[in-house]
Predict the 3D structure of the following.
Amino acid sequence: MKKSIVIGLIALVALATGFSMVSAATAPQGNGPYANRPALTEAQQQEMAPLLTQMNDLRKQMFEVRKQMIQKQVSFGNLTQEQADWRIGKMKERAERIGNVPGQGGKGFMGGGRGPGQQQSPAK
């Protein structure tokens, strides 16, 4: 009885290992849903250019509005100027890190949460 259970478990492990190897070999390369998409043609890129410009303009506006909102918090007394400067500095650092310096295009302001390694703002 014990031998058949052990043999069954070994067979199950062997099948699982074989399946994972086959799956890895046949999986599409790259990450995400856009990994295997074809490159845009020159005409398609030209058609997208005005939209990208518009998107970059909106990013600039968002950045400025966020700065204004932080300054409003200072005027309400909810933040000190030091905290506001720190937050604005962090916004700029994040924008530079992800390639979205206002006015230079890039990926956008995604992932604004506090993940591992992100610092907390200074205390009030």
Q: What stands out?
A: Helices lie at 2-26, 42-76, 81-97.
